Each structure stands twice: as C-alpha cells, then as structure tokens.
Write the structure tokens for this entry.
Amino acid sequence: MSLDSPKSDYAPAQYSPEDESRTRQFSTTISRDLGIGSEALANVHFAGSGDLPSVFAVSDLATAAVAAAGASVAELVAAQFGVLPRVTVNRRLSSLWFLRSIRPDGWKMPPPWDPIAGDYPTADGWIRLHTNAPHHRDAALSVLGVSADKSEVARAVVNWRADALETAVVENHGCAAAMRSMAAWAAHAQGESVSREPLVVTQLTSDCSDSTLSSTPERPLRGIRVLDLTRVLAGPVATRFLAGFGAEVLRIDPPVWDEPGVIPDVTLGKRCARLDLRNSDQRLVFLDLLCRADVLVHGYRADALDNLGLEARTLREISPGLIDVSLNAYGWNGPWRNRRGFDSLVQMSSGIADAGMESSGKIVQRPSRFKPWTIPPDISWLRPWCVVCRNALPPRRDSERSPPWREPRNC
C-alpha cells in the first residue's frame, strides 16, 4: 500500500474489472461498518494481479482489507494536513503480506508449529489440536494419555469422536476444534450467535485523551502510544501496521509465552517486554504503562481481563480516553464466548477447512483421503483492528511530542 499526493502521476498496473468489482464489494462492506467515508474509499486505486490458492476469494478480501486500512489512514492525514492522499493497493503484495512479510536472508525462520500441533483423523471426522503453548500441549496430551510423540497422539485420537475429544481438551484448558461443515456451523448454537453479531461494534465514551501528536503525512500516528497484548498473527500484525505509521507500540507477553516462528515477523517496529499480571509488583508496572497508553489492543477471551480485575470500566478509570480494541475468537455472545481460540481453530469450527478439503477432494474423487485445508491465517480479522484504532483517534495535530512511556497522564 502506498499513499500518494493527489497530483501524483503514478500509473498502477492493470487490475482486472472482475477482481476490482469483488474487491470493492468487500472494501465497501468493511468501510461501512467501520465508518470510513466514501470519499476516502473512492480515492483508493488498485494495482497488480494474481490470487492465493483458495476456494474462497482470499486475495479479494486481503486487498480490500488493506484498502480499508489505507483509506482510514488517508482520512487521518486529511484531517491533520488538509489534503486527502490517494491510496494505491497492490493485489499481489497484499496477498503475500497475508502470508508473510519478511524473507530470511542467510538464516531460517523457526518452525511455526509445535511438533504435536496439527489435523488428526478421528473415529468420525477430523480434529485440530493447537499445542504451540506448553500448557495447551500438556492439556491435550493429558486427555489422550500419551507422551509428546505425534504417532502416539494420532493412534489415540483415531479412537475418539471429534466432538467428544474437542470437549474434553477444552474442558482441560486446552485448545482444539473439530472440523464442521459450513451448514453444521450455521446450525450450531455458537454459529447462530455469531451470525447475529455485526462485523465491528463501536462504543463511544465521553472520556478525552490528552495525548499530543507530532505527526507527518508519512507517520500520521506518531506520538500515539499503543499497548499490544495480542498473540500470534491477527492482532500483532494489526499493531505492526500502527507502528508502521508512526505509533509507539509496546508489546507485553507473559513470562512463559514464546512463538519463535512468528516473532521476527510480527514484532517489527515494536518494543517488547514481559509481565505476569498475576504478580502484584508486575501488575503495578502494567497499570503504570496503561496510564500512559492511548490504545490498548488485546485478543483475550471475553472474561480474561475481567478475571484479572481489568473490566472495561476499570480500564477507563485507569486511563481516561483509552481506545480499547479487542477481538474474541468465537465472538462476544453465545456458549463459546469464553472459549480459547486461534485462527486455525476457528477455520475448523466454522466450515472454512471443510470447504477447502471438499474443493481439493472433488478434483480426484477421493475427498476422504484429503486433510482439512485452511486459508492463510491473517485473513479473518487483521485489518479491521487497525482501522478501528484509527477511527477512534481524534484528528489533532500538535507541534510538541510527548515522551513515550515516561510521563503519566494524571494517574
């Protein structure tokens, strides 16, 4: 994505009418739900070609999401500097960025998955075990009664019904998802609940932030302080987007959390630290950081921060004017609202993996021999987070920059 001056003579590569029609449908829907103006969206131009392999319109959605984020940034630039820049979004680069944004030169990225993680056939279907975190791996192995050996896990899983094993692992505080079809998910209590939820819910308060911006057209978020409590991909890439446009982003991880397969990619432009919010001294450090923050981004379960005494009302009392951006894997209502979830698990639950498997299987008439097939993991939630943050920021321009993470604001 690039922001160009209105008089730029940049001529984007040809974008097919079919691709542009689908992409603009997606971007219009996203922008409408996020309150992005039609003028900014109309000022978005598309370039490039190509598609990621998927039964779904993944590249259209990727390009549209980047377009919506870019249009939102352009609106902020216009509010601060009086000129609405043109946004150019490259379809190929957007698609590739939804896979990975860095390419190692002279070194190798660590494997993204724990050796036990993956899709396993069950007695009646498929299940995915998410075991990247040690305590999630221990939870699954405890239910199965086996050691950390993939072949032992496979032999144990095949004796279980998918729903029964999913329930057992989740009740043991682990992460698993049985593969369901889209029809089965639509009939499921959680699927029905999610279908009634809007894409984005925005709640405005009368609180005001006293932050100052020292932005430029290239870095319109400079001076904004973001606390990043997100994991893996969707949230961290959203906050990386904010950092790319000038925000001061501080990522906070628990002491035992590690995700080496994605850390080099998702921490670009950020500072990183570790805190245990259950430790009283470290909790005070976090509250002090929260006092200084303008934006808090988190992807915990609906009740996770509440259980730590950090309900939405408490957060606003600690940091008036705080922009609280949150994402919950399985939605904010329904029986699974407090269930642990990751993108790959949601794809299994909601029918995405099943649709991909069916599409692959029909090619050779042996669908039962094909494993579940998922779309690239950033697709579902990535850009809306960035845009929500931007839309909640006041269109101010101040000449003096406040020191990041130093002086609290009436804490």
